[in-house]
């Protein structure tokens, strides 16, 4: 450990032509905490994740993992350094089995796997169990339900050995029971010391999970504080939460 934040972003901006999708955003995420990111559609939340995970390059600013600059590093290098993400739309290798998806992810972390004395198959099995999908190991990933695809996506992200986990709307499209289950899984991941950054519209889940919340609006940081402070902030209510925010599902 370096003593540096597992994830830090400094003054990150991303322009798409004339569109300023992300504007001068900075934050640090610590191990064992959950940072929530919310904001209206088009606020730049997913673009911010794209910049952090390396799926797109930022126009300005820096991304640091454990104090090391990875701003211009490709996705696979960031993955090896410990950043993994899930996507808003469930994204799995649909022609492969659940276990093959897991193995593929586990092979991205051979060094960590060896250090921990685990084979890729052991790492795959451990994380399938964490998300409750062990009985679906031989199922075709493409035919899974949305919930199971989302769980698989989370398990594959973790099987890479990530200590920074970016979750893009992990609760979207899930039933109340599935949301509760996923909340518990994310808590367990946090308790392992992972730095979790979670974009979410489902306020019930976000408020119960997040230690801190950042609200984005028009690409910029609009508010930072605790979930309770966010729920009663008049400006946040005006631009995002609307009337009856505290009781939204
Ligand atoms: N690859 C892209 N090319 C052009 N514009 C994009 C691209 N990705 C996102 N945008 C635009 O950037 C803005 C922010 O989008 P996004 O980050 O997806 O918002 P959010 O996740 O908060 O809903 C939107 O106006 C969107 O249309
Ligand atoms: Mg998005």
Keywords:
249 residues; Rossmann fold; 2 domains; binds magnesium ion; 10 strands; 4-stranded antiparallel β-sheet; binds adenosine-5'-diphosphate; alpha/beta
Explained architecture:
- With 249 residues, the protein is of the alpha/beta class.
- It has 2 domains: 1-76 and 163-174 and 191-249, 3-Layer(aba) Sandwich (Rossmann fold); 83-162, no CATH class.
- It has helices at 45-53, 75-81, 98-107, 110-115, 120-130, 146-159, 176-191, 203-209, 227-231, 234-241, and strands spanning 7-16, 19-29, 34-38, 60-65, 68-69, 83-85, 164-168, 195-199, 212-217, 220-225.
- The strands form 2 sheets. A 6-stranded mixed beta sheet has the order 6-7-8-3-9-10, sandwiched between helices. Strands 2-1-4-5 form a 4-stranded antiparallel beta sheet, with helices on one face.
- A hairpin with a 2-residue loop joins strand 9 (212-217) and strand 10 (220-225).
- Helix 3 packs across helix 5.
- The chain is globular and about 50 Å long.
- It binds adenosine-5'-diphosphate (ADP) and magnesium ion.
- Magnesium ion is lined by residues 45-46, 88.
- Residues 45-46, 88 line the site of magnesium ion (MG).
Task: List the topology elements.
Layout: E1 7-16, E2 19-29, E3 34-38, H1 45-53, E4 60-65, E5 68-69, H2 75-81, E6 83-85, H3 98-107, H4 110-115, H5 120-130, H6 146-159, E7 164-168, H7 176-191, E8 195-199, H8 203-209, E9 212-217, E10 220-225, H9 227-231, H10 234-241
Parallel strand pairs: 3-8, 3-9, 6-7, 7-8
Antiparallel strand pairs: 1-2, 1-4, 4-5, 9-10
Helix pairs in contact: 3-5, 3-6, 5-6
The chain binds adenosine-5'-diphosphate and magnesium ion.
């Amino acid at each position: 450990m370096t003593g540096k934040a597992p994830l830090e972003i400094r003054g990150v901006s991303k322009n798409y032509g004339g569109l300023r999708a992300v504007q001068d955003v900075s934050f640090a995420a610590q191990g064992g905490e959950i940072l929530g990111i919310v904001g209206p559609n088009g606020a730049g939340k997913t673009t911010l994740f794209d910049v952090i995970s390396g799926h797109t390059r930022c126009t300005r600013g820096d991304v640091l993992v454990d104090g090391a600059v990875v701003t211009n590093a490709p996705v696979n290098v960031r993955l090896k350094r410990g950043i993994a993400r899930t996507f808003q739309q469930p994204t799995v290798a649909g022609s492969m089995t659940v276990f093959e998806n897991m193995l593929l992810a586990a092979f991205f972390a051979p060094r960590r796997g060896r250090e921990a004395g685990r084979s890729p198959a052991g790492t795959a099995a451990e994380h399938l169990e964490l998300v409750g999908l062990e009985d679906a190991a031989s199922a075709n990933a493409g035919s899974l339900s949305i919930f199971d695809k989302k769980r698989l996506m989370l398990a594959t992200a973790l099987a890479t050995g990530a200590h920074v986990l970016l979750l893009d709307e992990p609760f979207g499209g899930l039933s109340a029971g599935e949301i509760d289950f996923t909340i518990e899984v994310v808590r367990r991941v946090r308790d392992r010391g992972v730095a979790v950054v979670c974009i979410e519209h489902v306020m019930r889940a976000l408020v119960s999970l997040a230690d801190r919340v950042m609200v984005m609006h028009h690409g910029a940081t609009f508010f930072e504080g605790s979930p309770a402070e966010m729920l009663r902030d008049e400006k946040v209510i005006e631009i995002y939460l609307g009337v009856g925010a505290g009781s939204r599902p």
